[in-house]
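Discussion board: Methods & Data

I've been asked by a reviewer to show the raw model output for two of the constructs in my manuscript, not just the figures. I'm not sure how much to include, so I'm pasting the format here to get opinions. Each protein appears as its amino acid sequence followed by a line of discrete structure tokens. Is this the kind of thing reviewers expect to see in a supplement, or should I convert it first? Here is construct A:
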Amino acid sequence: MTRILLFLATNLAVMLVLSIAMNVLGIGRFLTAEGLDPTALLVFSAIIGFTGAIISLLTSKWMAKRSTGAHVIDPQAPRNAQEAWLVDTVHQLADRAGIGRPEVAIYDGAPNAFATGAFKNDSLVAVSTGLLQSMNEEEVMAVLGHEVAHIANGDMVTLTLIQGVVNTFVIFFARLVGYFVDRVIMKNERGLGMGYYAASIVCEIIFGILASIIVAWFSRRREYRADAGSASLLGSRTPMIRALARLGNVEAGDLPKSFEASGISGGKSIAALFASHPPIEDRIRALQQGQ
């Protein structure tokens, strides 16, 4: 809750500062006189920007289960020794991390794993059959520690709130540019014309691409923290280093784009700036250096 309030307060503070600056510079008065209220636009943008991100977070567990076909293990009745070990290991790691015990699931696919959920005490950790087949127990435990660290760090909530913030400003600035294009370039003086809508759509695409770089940067930072978190939970960096080295030698499984950043290994990206995960060798180097 503290994390949520902090980010909401930050977003509101940024909106307030921007609104004050626009009014001091006279932009706010000009836009209001011309039929566009920047304060109302900021509020509108925040509502739209955060609503989608928060709905995505609240439905993340359900979506993850449906999109991967994951089988949630009944902790009271695991089907075999492997399931019993998985549940016991995740629960032990969660207890060490001081969070509620997550649901544990297995899904069919190439090596990968992910954690998701809106709340630390109501989350999901899932591993693929490919990961279980390609790693030994120590390496699997390190991967599970990585996912539990994501939950303990509140990464899903933080990433959602950052996405909400960038969404807000993408929407705000896209419409601001659209308004100026409509009034200044297209010389439209009545209502909002095609210049506004066309420029807004184009700017949303361009600004959205730029904003995704910010979100991807944070996602890469949190991977380093989760790697370090796994090492802390296990009391040694070696298992996580070995698990990463193993991942570097296999073809990792792709996850649905909606929660690809939650995986232990990210999908391929056209450019490093847009990658949700750092290169495996960089993660190993960071662990070796104790970062």
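Construct B, same format:
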Amino acid sequence: MTEHATADPATEAFVAHRNLLFTVAYEMLGSAADAEDVLQETWLRWSDVDLDQVRDVRAYLVRITTRQALNRLRGMKRRKEAYVGPWLPEPLLTAPDVAEDVELAESVSMAMMLVLETLAPTERAVFVLREAFDVGYDEIAEAVGKTPAAVRQIAHRARRHVDARRPRQVVPASTSRAALEAFQRAIETMDTQALLEVLAPEVVLVNDGGGIKQASPRPILGADKVTRFMLGVLGKNTDRAITLSPTMANGTPALLVHLGGEFDGVLAAHVEGSVITGLYYVRNPQKLTRVTAETSLTLR
């Protein structure tokens, strides 16, 4: 009997859709660790399903994943309320070609994920399924326990909310990469003027230490303040070599930051025109375990 003939159909179906399900959960939760937990919960429920009764495997799996993610999203509210300092999504290393898909790159970018944080749980689920994955209203209705008419209204409200807050423009990856390279050179040479030139006047820096690593308790606004903070913080580490390595995180160019040879965090940027308007620095070690594991494997 061939391997294909003896394979478990339920397992094959789950594996075939795993990347899709992970992305759905991640965009709803902003946490790769929680998204993996949701996939475990999805698998446990899927393994008990009678496949003969399933008309559309993809829709069924997305429905289970959405329900589990919604349950977890509602439970995460207290965790975020008690969080020390600004909260950023857990960075997700992505393949270079993701950035060439502008819509996908925008849907998982740090800037966009922070906009999604302003939605209510059901609004976020509806928006993600409809806008990022083009799921039909009837399927979304089954996933979130609403009528199709109600889902249409929720989708309209969520889209209007997001459009009012989403980044004004999405630039090609090459433009983002050029701005980040200029930022990297300015930091490595401690060049104040060069840093000011690559930062938009209204740039915002959000750094997430989770109460474990040093971080500003509030977002820092304005090129002058961001420059002083970045060079001031890094200036305190002059006894530890600073290494910035280009990578791709959440669909856009980013930097891996090492201090004294030790991995310190992921710095992502949002670029408009040719300047950086948003900087997102994740230093909380609890949010870096996946990145640490993946970069360690790459270096082997």
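Answer (T.O., handling editor elsewhere):
This is acceptable in a supplement if you add a one-line summary per construct. For B, something like: Residues 1-5 have pLDDT under 50 and may be disordered.
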